[in-house]
Design a protein that fits this description.
elongated; about 70% helix; mainly alpha
């Protein structure tokens, strides 16, 4: 894991002109904020990768910190890749999770890309996705204004629910 903090200006140290308390406090606040966000991001990775819990750190950051929210969203989207690789989430859940995170912070193009990948995996029939993931996919697609794709997701949801019922009765594998 590699952590790259944004540049933080250090308060100048000079024997004749010591730094004022405001510049020291601003530096401490900036460093503390970056450290707290990093610790939160690492905790979200742990919970998703180990237990499959959907991250929500990006929703807790104030909207005024727009660029920080987008950086966090990118980090959280990457955590879905690791969770997918480790088998904690299926392909549809991973892509829907990524789309949701991107959507929450206003990264529309990335959200559309992830949702489209989830829809393709759902429609292919090779992915055994939970119906709740497909339902969430339809909601995300609706939110993105892609009503045609949302309808396709609903059809895939109906087909997945039908397969699950048949499987539960032992009529079809």
């Amino acid at each position: 894991m590699q952590v790259n903090f944004p540049p933080v200006p250090l308060p100048g140290v000079n024997q004749q002109n010591p730094p004022d308390s405001n510049s020291v406090l601003a530096f401490e606040d900036e460093l503390g904020g970056s450290t707290a966000i990093t610790a939160g991001l690492i905790a979200e990775w742990f919970h998703l990768v180990k237990h499959g819990r959907i991250p929500r750190l990006h929703t807790l950051i104030p909207a005024a910190l727009h660029s920080e929210r987008q950086v966090i969203a990118a980090g959280l989207a990457a955590s879905f890749e690791v969770a997918l690789e480790r088998g904690r989430v299926d392909i549809v859940s991973a892509r829907v999770g990524q789309a949701s995170v991107y959507l929450d912070v206003g990264l529309r193009a990335q959200a559309i890309s992830a949702a489209s990948q989830a829809l393709a995996a759902t429609e292919s029939g090779t992915a055994h996705a939970a119906t709740q993931s497909i339902r969430r996919l339809a909601e995300v697609l609706d939110t993105l204004g892609l009503s045609g794709e949302a309808n396709r997701a609903r059809l895939a949801l109906e087909a997945a629910a039908r397969r699950a019922i048949l499987r539960n009765f032992g009529w079809r594998s």
